[in-house]
């Protein structure tokens, strides 16, 4: 086979392989053929500025417990005008010692801006042998979390509340919380024990601590209770281990 034909054949094979990858690996907002997407059955002549306006972002945090982590979202579910626009937003509040546990956004990158207090943030680069990139952020600092990478935020301040805003490169970025995904979805205890090389008592303790929290996919602010310090540290370490397993 001539060299040029070989190159063409290899190129064709690579294109086919890329298109056979799992859809989640290439997930993101679809391209749309109109400037924006109207609600089903809506009359275009009746659309006005109200459709492009969302006023519930900060009010969503008003009822949150100031001692916990809370998030108010403005994604496609809460703000339909962003559907197809590859953008969404969130307001986040962190009580003293509160943590946004290690999690993943499978369909969008995140750009975090700290507006109050101090946050310790970080991410795990599983493609580089689990390298951890961490940084202490002050008000006015920004940090980017690439799509699909395990990351977290932690208010290590002694007494003050921390606040931040996050912009996402997708209308429905999705959130997969590793502690809840691993310990609150019915995975058999034996599987967890062997996967993390721990004992049943530790697994059960982690489950009990996580049951104190009650995240919800609703448009209202999600508030998460902090776990006991030792259990939280154990959960974080186990989540790092999970990140390495997922990368295999």
In short:
The protein contains 5 helices and 11 strands, in the order αββββββββββαααβα.
Give the SSE map.
Layout: H1 3-19, E1 69-74, E2 88-94, E3 99-104, E4 110-116, E5 119-125, E6 131-137, E7 142-145, E8 150-154, E9 162-168, E10 176-177, H2 178-183, H3 189-196, H4 200-210, E11 222-224, H5 229-247
Antiparallel strand pairs: 1-2, 1-11, 2-9, 3-8, 3-10, 4-7, 4-9, 5-6, 5-8
CATH arch. level architecture of the domain at 54-173: Sandwich
Number of strands: 11
**Derived structural class:** alpha+beta
Give me the CATH superfamily of the domain at 54-173: Jelly Rolls
Task: Give the biggest sheet.
Answer: 6 strands, antiparallel
Mean pLDDT: 80
Task: Give me the Rg, rounded.
Answer: 21 Å
As an assembly, this protein is single chain
What is the highest CATH level, the class of the domain at 54-173? Mainly Beta
N-to-C CA distance? 36 Å
Secondary structure: helix percent:
10-25%
- Unreliable stretches (pLDDT < 50, length at least 5) are 9-25, 215-220, 225-248
